[in-house]
Design a protein that fits this description.
mainly alpha; 0% strand; 79% helix; elongated; 311 residues; 15 helices
């Protein structure tokens, strides 16, 4: 009896083991297939991201056709790659295909609705289109997701400037500067907001702060010109002239900057310096009518005179 029971138990156990083995093969096979699909999707995403990065470098070099080719391929490989889609939107925007660019950003956001950067990118597009209500909605959504992201506060400030509210703009820009205090772009927006408010002294102070972010001698032409304009706005003409000369040394097209320096020396009552720069301009370009006009005014001035001359 015990022998028959043991044999029956062994038969039942063998059947059970066989059933579990078959189930294991089925489940295991499904798991392997799922793992294979996940690995394949990961590889496609990695390849798409690589092509997207190559497209970025092509865009930086101005090769928009190559960038377009790479991004189209990337999205064919991995349509769910929101970074590639956002970059493709940026490319379309640069090519003037704005409605298509906007549609690509909308698709990206449907795939990743909690991506703050995507909200900020589409908000910037809406700002450039002048669609302020839509921009505000995405700026707010992005800030709700990532309140410490300075890009959102910069966009909020830009929106306020477009609504002619420089005080609100300054609050937003200062919020961004609190997160990234040495960011020149943020400081530039702060200076613009002060100018919009008519506060030229504060704008000059911010421009000087921007210059402090550069290593001495590495100041950009653009930053120097902006500083010269800020000095000019507060009627510090001699300082403006000196900065224009520094900018001219860095420029591939120095003539307009040299002329600006000469005009500011003239306003500062320093006709000798103004005349020297004007003659330098005319020696290389006798057809410069503004320089010729300034030379005519300067030749009527007695260089020895110490009287300030303002135009």
């Amino acid at each position: 009896m015990w022998g028959r029971v043991t044999i029956a138990y062994m038969i039942d156990f063998t059947k059970t083991a066989a059933i579990w083995a078959v189930l294991g093969l089925v489940v295991g096979g499904g798991g392997c297939r799922l793992m294979h699909r996940e690995m394949q999707a990961t590889r496609l995403l990695e390849k798409s991201r690589l092509m997207s990065q190559q497209a970025y470098f092509a865009m930086e070099k101005g090769d928009l056709q190559e960038a377009d080719h790479l991004l189209v391929q990337a999205l064919q490989l991995c349509p769910q790659d929101t970074e590639a889609r956002a970059r493709y939107s940026q490319l379309l925007w640069r090519c003037g295909r704005r409605e298509e660019a906007l549609e690509q950003m909308k698709i990206a956001l449907r795939m990743a609705p909690h991506d703050a950067e995507l909200h900020f990118r589409i908000a910037e597009q809406y700002l450039e289109l002048g669609q302020l209500t839509e921009a505000q909605a995405h700026i707010q959504r992005g800030l709700d997701i990532a309140r410490e992201n300075p890009n959102g506060w910069v966009l909020q400030g830009r929106l306020a400037l477009m609504r002619n509210d420089p005080d609100a703009a300054l609050r937003a820009f200062h919020q961004a500067a609190g997160i990234r205090p040495q960011d020149r772009d943020i400081l530039e927006w702060i200076a613009k907001a002060y100018l919009a408010r008519g506060d030229t002294d504060q704008a000059l102070a911010v421009r000087q702060r921007i210059m402090d972010t550069f290593t001495p001698g590495e100041e950009s032409e653009q930053a120097l010109v902006a500083l010269a304009e800020a000095y000019q706005a507060v009627r510090r003409y001699a300082s403006a002239a000196e900065i224009y000369l520094q900018a001219a040394q860095k420029s591939d097209h120095p003539e307009p900057l040299l002329l600006a320096a000469a005009e500011n020396y003239y306003r500062a009552g320093q006709p000798g310096q103004a005349l020297g720069i004007t003659e330098q301009i005319l020696a290389s370009n006798p057809q410069n009518h503004r320089a010729r006009d300034l030379q005519g005014r300067l030749q009527g001035v007695t260089v020895a005179s110490q009287s300030p001359i303002f135009r």
